[in-house]
Write a structure and sequence with these properties.
Helix content is about 40%, strand content about 10%. It is an alpha+beta fold. Strands 1-7-2-5-8 form a five-stranded antiparallel β-sheet, covered by helices on one side. A three-stranded antiparallel β-sheet has the order 4-3-6, with no helix packed on it. Helix 3 runs antiparallel to helix 4 and helix 7 crosses helix 8. The longest helix is centred in the middle third of the chain and has 19 residues. It is globular and about 55 Å long.
Length: about 300
């Protein structure tokens, strides 16, 4: 279950002919500048359907036309004026519901926004933290403001300006902070203080274990005690901090993340259920099946079975 790369993206979206729609790699931004591209969604007319998978890059998309966006294990978002974010941690799929998709998309990699260039760590922004809203509908006036930033980036990308990479980064940060302001309130509200910092460290440590590259080796950290030891705190202190910051216990947060990954592995891979159980650190298939049925309401085999099979 390797993530889709930029090479994969450009191969899939390349124009079939000189006059056909398609997305080409951007002009070279210079040594060490990283990767950045911006394009109208109309350029994706005729592109093959997306597969549901993670991407090895970041993407910010404003889709003005009707579309369907699936992110992780969340219910699909259907409608126009959808703003959605893609990070290397979140699998997703976008499906236009019209032959003439409208809007803009920009994609970039870690190297383009290195912390050394801005002093900001992308993963520490509320926008890109685990649990943040990946997709939502924005008002018409906000769509216009977002489009104005996308259009500035689109005009600058092909220019020969000596400081083009720096200007594009400035525009991208403008877009990121604008999107962060528009993000639904529950994802923006973060408790302050030591408990919040510990909760952030826990979330980052948890996400580092995913996605699973293969059945082996199994998860290194599996229990609340494992995480407490790694964070150099008592397990009771970790539990109190997470409860105060998120409203959930350590065990509940671990179970929720394990269930999310289990669902993705059952749907996206052909691994035997026994190997999925091993990969996620369960002692055996029986323990995994009990866990999955308790939280998902059905067995792993029933969940993996195509809808209508056996009927």
């Amino acid at each position: 279950m390797k993530p889709n790369t930029l090479v994969t993206f450009y191969e899939a979206c390349a124009p079939a002919s000189e006059s056909a729609a398609g997305v080409l790699p951007p002009p070279d931004l210079g040594p060490g500048a990283g990767h950045f591209n911006v394009f109208p969604l109309a350029d994706l007319r005729g592109a093959p359907p997306m597969n549901f998978n993670r991407r090895a890059y970041y993407k910010i998309t404003l889709c003005r036309s009707p579309s369907q966006v699936e992110c992780a294990d969340q219910p699909p978002h259907v409608g126009p004026n959808a703003l959605f974010l893609v990070t290397p941690q979140v699998p997703y799929r976008w499906r236009p519901l019209t032959d003439e998709p409208a809007g803009y998309c920009c994609l970039f990699d870690d190297a383009f926004l290195l912390p050394a260039r801005s002093g900001v760590v992308l993963a520490e922004l509320p926008l890109f933290r685990p649990g943040a809203y990946p997709v939502w509908e924005v008002a018409e006036a906000d769509c216009a403001a977002l489009e104005a930033v996308f259009e500035k980036m689109a005009r600058e990308l092909p220019s020969a300006h000596a400081f083009r990479p720096e200007l594009l980064r400035t525009y991208l940060w403008e877009l990121i902070y604008l999107v962060q302001r528009l993000q639904p309130a529950p994802a923006r509200l973060a408790p302050q203080g030591a408990a919040a910092r510990l909760a952030t460290q826990f979330a980052e440590l948890l996400e580092r274990q995913f996605p699973r590259p293969g059945p082996y080796p199994p998860l290194r950290l599996r229990t609340a005690t494992d995480y407490a030891q790694q964070l150099a705190v008592h397990v009771n202190h970790l539990n109190r901090a997470l409860k105060a910051s998120t409203g959930h216990t350590t065990t509940a947060l671990l179970s929720r993340r394990l269930l999310q990954e289990a669902r993705l592995l059952l749907k996206q891979t052909t691994w035997p259920i026994s190997e999925i159980a091993d990969s996620l650190g369960f002692a055996d298939v029986a323990h995994f099946s009990t866990f999955f049925k308790r939280h998902a309401g059905q067995t792993p085999g029933d969940f993996r079975r195509p809808a209508g099979a056996g009927q």
